[in-house]
Amino acid sequence: KNTVPQAASLLLEKLMLLVHIRPLPAGSGGKTPPPAPGYYDTSCFKRGDLLEVPRTLFIHFGIYLGENRVAHLMPDILPSITSDRRQIQQMVTNKRLILGVIARTASVRVDTVEDFAYGGSILVNHMDRLFEDQVLSNEEAARRAEKLVGGTAYSLLWNNCEHFVTYCRYGAPVSFQTDKFCETVKMIIRDQRSVLASVLVGLASIVCLGVAPSTTLPTIFIPFFLWMAG
């Protein structure tokens, strides 16, 4: 019986949506304007640099291609239902993203730095320290990214935005975020009492506070989901 791994995978998919989903202000009509061009100083970026943008729970990654362009992998339903490049290239909406996660489809797309980062802070080549001598040349990283532009399969555990950039820059598709998540799940499973305790604490927090802080969401919902599935 593999209900626990399946539950963990499903939960991770739900949580990883927070990496991409953008809050829509009231009265916006479903659209949020991106930062104006020039919001980021791209003069310090080099072609082939690995860019990462910390989000609420996870990190979004991309490869800088030069001239204010970033290649990055995002869940998207459109590549599986149309070949219209103009339509696909339009900014990915939350609906397209969610349907892409459900259908396990995505696209490696090229966007401006502003659209890629969407107001978040950008770290440059921050992962290089983890790979030491495995770093490929910047030009090789950029060429790999450009070759992969287009529709692709999507998996939050096996083929997400981090797998894409680590393959391009280091030659090996890995995701430290999902590895860390899986280790956390294993620790939780080892102690069913802590699972139940976390569930109760999480529910109590929601009841007493109305809403749980974003930093405690994994603590509350991961044990709850696994407990219910187990």
Automatic annotation (TrEMBL):
GO terms for molecular function: phosphatidylcholine-retinol O-acyltransferase activity. InterPro entries: LRAT (IPR042288), LRAT_dom (IPR007053). Pfam families: LRAT. Its EC number is 2.3.1.135. Residues 50-177 form the LRAT domain. It is found in: Cytoplasm, Perinuclear region; Endoplasmic reticulum membrane; Late endosome; Rough endoplasmic reticulum. Keywords: Acyltransferase, Cytoplasm, Endoplasmic reticulum, Endosome, Lipid metabolism, Membrane, Sensory transduction, Signal, Transferase, Transmembrane, Transmembrane helix, Vision. The chain crosses the membrane at residues 195-228. One of its GO terms (biological process) is retinol metabolic process. The keyword Lyase does not apply. This is Lecithin retinol acyltransferase. It comes from Dicaeum eximium.
